[in-house]
Amino acid sequence: MTTVPRRWLPVVTLALLALAATVTTLGHDFTYDDRDIIFINDRVQSRAHLPHLFIETYWPAKYGGDGYRPIVMSLFTLQWVAANGAPWIFHLVNILLAVATTLAVYWCAAAVLPTLGAWVAAALFAVHPVHVEVTGNVVGQSELIVALCLALAVGLYLRRRKTHELTGRDVAAISALFGLGLFTKEHAIVLPGLLVAAEATVLPGDEWRSRVRTMRPLLLALTAVALAYLYVRGLVQQDLVGFLEYPMFRFLRMSAIDRIGTMMNEMPRIAQLILFPTRLSADYSPNDVLVANGPALSQIPGLFICFGTVLLAFALRTRAPVVSFGLLWLIVAFLPVSNLLMPAGFVTAERTLFFPSIGAVLMAGALTEHVRLHASVSRRRVATAGLAVLLVAGLARSIGRQRVWKNNDTFFVALMHDAPNGYRAHFLHAKHVGLKGRLSEMASEYRRAIRIFPFDAGMTLSVADAYTRAGLCAPAVALFELTFGVEPETGEGRYEYVWCLARLGRWTDVRREALDGLRLVPPSDVRLMRAAVVEANKALGKGSR
C-alpha cells in the first residue's frame, strides 16, 4: 500500500512547490501588457471572432501589428467568454500551466537523470524567481505553453531514442507539440536544435550516419511543420522576424557590432538572472543598459561568458553529458532572443529566460547526482542544507515578487523602484499617472525619461501627442521636432505638429511642414494637410498687406 504514495511523492511535492510560487496571483488584475492584449482588445472578447485570430497579428495594428500567436489568442478568447472577462480565470490558467510545466520539466529531466536529480531540477524550476514575469502576467501564457510543449517533446524523444527507434506515432506526437508551440509563440522554432543537442550529448553513442537515419523522418516532419507555419505567418506578416526592433537599435541606427557589444555588456546580468536572480525588473533600458559604441573593455566579461559556455558545453560532452546538454539547451533556447543573430523588440527581458532556464536546472540536477554519488556524508549534508535554503529562498522571493504584478498601481511603482535609471520606467510611469489625472507628476516623469534617452522617437511622439491633447502646444512642438530629427521619414504626428504650429501662429512653419508632410502622412491626413497650407497662405497673405 505504501509503494504508490512513494512513487507519486516527487510529483506531488513538485506540484505543491509550483502552486505555492504562483497561487497568490489568483486575485490579481490585468496588468501592463495584459490590458492592451486582453482587457481593451475586443478581438479576444467574442467567440465569433475566433477564426479571424488565425489571420491577424498578435498586437493590434495601432501598436505596430507585431507577432503571430493565434493559439494563445484563441485561449484568451475562451477564457474571456467563460468568465465574462474576469481576470481570475486567466490567472488560474497561468497557475495550472505553471504546475503542468514544472511536471513536464521533471518528466523530461527524468529521462537523463535519476529521480533525485530530476526532482531537484524541477523543484528549482518551480521556485525560480525570474519566472515571475511569466507566471504573474497573463500574457505569459504563451511562454508557459511553449515550455510545456517543448519539454514534453524533448522528454518523449529522449525516452523513445533510449529504448527503441522512433515510431510513426512518436513522430506525429512530437510534430504536433512542435506545431502547437509554434502557433503559440515563435521561439518554439528551437526544438530541432534541442533534439540535435540531445543526440550530441545524452543519447547512446551510435555513429552519426545511424543517428541521421533515425532522426530523418522526424526532422523531415518538423521541417514540414516549420515551413507550414512560416507560410501561414507570411500571409499575415511580410517581415520574417515580425517585430519592430527595440527603439535603441532602431533609432540609433546601431550596427550589428554595436548591438552585439551592447549584449556583451548585458551578458553578466543575464547570467546572474538565470543563476542567482537577486535583482529583478520588468524593464531593462538605457541608462540601466550600457549602450556600446564600438568594442570596449566592458564587453570582455560578456565575451568570456559566451565563449566559455560554448567551449564548456563541448568539453564536457563525454565527461558530464547532462551538464553539456544543459549548457547546449541554454545556448539553443536563448540564441533567438539574444539580439546576437538579429535585433529583437527588447534588450533584456526576464520572460525570455523562462524556457532557457531549463538548461540551468538540468545542470543543477546533474550536480546533485554527482554530490550524491561522490561526496562524503558530511558534504552531502551540507549540500542538502544548501539546497533547502535555496528552495526556501527562491520560493519566498517568487511569492514576494508576485505582488508586483497585482495591478498597474503596484506594477508601475515597483518598476520605478527596480529600474530608476531606465528611461522606459519613467516613461511608462508617466503614462500611468497621466491616466490618473496627476498631470504635474506626469510632466515631470516625461521630462526625466527624455533627459535620460531622447532618441526613442516613439516615446517622444507619444509625449508630444499627450501635450497636444492637453492644449500645451509649445512643449509639444519641441518634442515633435525632436521626434522628426530622430525619425525624419515618419508620417505619424505630422498633422498634430502642423496643428500646434498654427495654434502658436507660426504660419511660415505651418506652410513648410504641411507641404513637406504631404508625402509622409497617411491618406486620411492628406486633406487636412492641404487645408493647413491654405490657412497658412491666408494668414501670411493678411500679414503681408
Question: Can you describe what's shown?
Answer:
The protein is an all-alpha fold and 545 residues long. It is 67% helix and 0% strand. Helix 14 packs antiparallel against helix 15 (357-374) and helix 23 (507-517) runs antiparallel to helix 24 (523-544). The radius of gyration is 26 Å and the shape is elongated.
Summarize the entry for a quick read.
The chain is mostly helical.
Strand proportion, as a percent range, falls in: under 5%
Helical content, roughly? 55-70%
State the distance separating the first and last CA atoms: 105 Å
Q: Which term fits the overall shape? A: elongated
Oligomer: single chain
Count, helices: 24
What does the radius of gyration come to?
Answer: 26 Å
Quick one: biggest sheet?
none
Mean pLDDT: 92
Low-confidence stretches: none
Order of helices and strands: HHHHHHHHHHHHHHHHHHHHHHHH
Structural class: mainly alpha
Total beta strand runs: 0
Which keywords apply here?
24 helices; 545 residues; 0% strand
Give the arrangement of secondary structure elements:
Blueprint: H1 3-22, H2 33-39, H3 70-83, H4 87-109, H5 115-127, H6 132-135, H7 141-163, H8 168-182, H9 191-201, H10 208-236, H11 247-251, H12 256-275, H13 300-315, H14 321-334, H15 357-374, H16 377-402, H17 408-418, H18 423-435, H19 439-452, H20 457-469, H21 473-486, H22 494-503, H23 507-517, H24 523-544
Helix pairs in contact: 1-4, 1-5, 1-16, 3-4, 4-5, 4-7, 5-15, 5-16, 7-8, 7-9, 8-10, 9-14, 12-13, 13-14, 14-15, 17-18, 18-19, 20-21, 21-22, 22-23, 22-24, 23-24
